[in-house]
Amino acid sequence: MHAPVAIITGAGRGIGRAIALELANRGYRLALASRNQQELEAVAAQAKTAISVPTDITRPNDVQMLVDKTLASFGRIDVIVNNVGLAPVAKVNELSIEQWHAVINTNLSSAFYLTRAVWETFKEQHAGCIVNISSMSSRDPLPGFAAYGAAKAGLNLLSLVLAREGAEHGIRSYAIAPGAVETSMFRRMVSKEKWPVEKTLDPADVARVVAQCIDGDLKYTSGEVIFLSKTV
Question: Which of 28, 113, 148, 174 is catalytic?
Answer without folding.
Answer: 148
